[in-house]
């Protein structure tokens, strides 16, 4: 969603912490029908995400990608293929 992270950060500054429903659905994560059913029936997986968690997650993810060269231990990173949940750019930038 365009400007979502900026909007969430601004609204949080104005109103304080609030919750956002995740758009991630089980069928976007896997094609395996058993895993989809497991995801949808798991009571520990909830859609609401606190705004402060989302804002900090974006900040830390950007820092990790920009500081990737500071990682000195062997690291295996699995890249997404035809994915609707994550963006490809930062994954490839991580290696540059």
Strand percentage lies at 5-15%
* Number of helices, counting only DSSP H or I runs of 4 residues or more: 5
The separation of the N and C termini measures 26 Å
Provide the residue-averaged pLDDT. 85
Radius of gyration: 16 Å
The SS-based structural class is mainly alpha
With strands numbered from the N-terminus, the spatial order across the biggest sheet is 1-2
List low-pLDDT spans.
none
What's the total count of β strands? Answer: 2
How do the helices and strands follow one another from N- to C-terminus? HEHHEHH
Number of domains in the coordinates?
A: 1
Q: Which bin fits the share of residues in helices?
A: 40-55%
The rough form would be described as: flat
Largest sheet: 2 strands, antiparallel
General description of the model:
The chain is mainly alpha-helical and 96 residues long. It has one domain (4-93). Helix content is 49%, strand content 6%. It has helices at residues 4-15, 26-29, 33-41, 51-66, 88-93, and strands spanning 19-21, 48-50. The chain has a two-stranded antiparallel ribbon. The protein is flat, with a radius of gyration of 16 Å. The model has no long low-confidence stretch (mean pLDDT 85).
Question: What is the fold's blueprint, element by element?
Answer:
Elements: H1 4-15, E1 19-21, H2 26-29, H3 33-41, E2 48-50, H4 51-66, H5 88-93
Antiparallel strand pairs: 1-2
